[in-house]
Amino acid sequence: MPNHGVRLTRPSLCRSVEASDNNHGACGPSAPSRLRFVRMPVFDSDEPTARRRAVLGMGEALSRCAHFMEAGDVDRMYLGYVETVMWIRSLDELFQRRDPDYVSRRNDQPGGQVVNALCWVRDKGIHQIVAFHEKVERSENDLGLGPSYPDGTYAVWLKSSEVVLRVQNDFGNDVEKARIYDLHLGGRSLWATLAEARLFLFMDEGPNGAVSERRD
Q1: What is the rounded CA–CA span in Å between residue 25 and residue 204?
Q2: In terms of pLDDT, which residue wins out, 200 or 18?
Q3: Would you say residue 27 has pLDDT above 60?
Q4: Rounded CA gap, 146 and 133, in Å?
Q5: Cα(first)–Cα(last) distance of the chain, in Å?
Q6: Average of per-residue pLDDT values in the chain
Q7: Alpha carbons 76 and 73: distance in angstroms, whole number
Q8: For residue 55, what pLDDT is reported?
Q9: Partner of 31 for a Cys bridge, out of 27, 91, 146, 193, CB 3.0 to 4.6 A?
């Protein structure tokens, strides 16, 4: 497969200048006689690589979310689910650009509906660093809810009407996005729904087949 990556370069923190006895250059006497641009490594931007890395990122972030929830570290648990949401939304948008049939498949499957509902979480919650979850009691009959906090509670998504935003930023179609959020996320287990979304993206059979977690 051809490499469509872009070779990125960045200038040195120092200006490219000649050093002389009377001119030590922009960085002082320790600077080399000639400073050149620093050549950075090539980053693959082909779709299979992007898909694989996004799935790996989702899995690792979701694992951290579970670990810190069980440890009772609410701040790092929040960071874990924020990162998971960002990976999910990024991969969703990649699929939309590359596969004209993807949206119809996504909207017909429960995990895909969660993926779509997370758009409001990203637009309203993550951009404002606002938590969209609360801790609730769980009963012995609760199954498939994912990990618990040390006190036995677990995290669920708030209803959109319960979310307190700092500012009313407008990303477009906010009312519809909130409706979809309430329909597929509000009141449900945070960890379980994120796992469901990840599974959908992992298993989705688009034109390039299911995403692989292998690193060749």
Answers
A1: 55
A2: 200
A3: no
A4: 14
A5: 13
A6: 74
A7: 6
A8: 83
A9: 27
pLDDT at 169: 59
Residues found in the chain? 216
Instruction: Give the 3-state secondary structure of residue 172.
Output: coil
> 72-75 — which CB contacts under 8 Å span 24+ positions?
72/149, 72/150, 72/151, 74/149
Residue 35 is predicted with a pLDDT of 46
For 56, the enclosing helix (H) or strand (E) is helix 47-71
* 9 SS3 class: strand
Residue 165: alpha-carbon gap to chain centroid? 20
3-state SS class at 156: strand
Q: What's the confidence (pLDDT) of residue 147?
A: 87
Question: What number of other Cβ atoms are within 10 A of residue 146's Cβ?
Answer: 19
d(CA 109, CA 194): 14
Give me the sign of the Cα torsion angle 118, 120, 117, 157. positive
pTM score of the predicted model: 0.69
Q: What is the mean pLDDT of residues 72-100?
A: 91
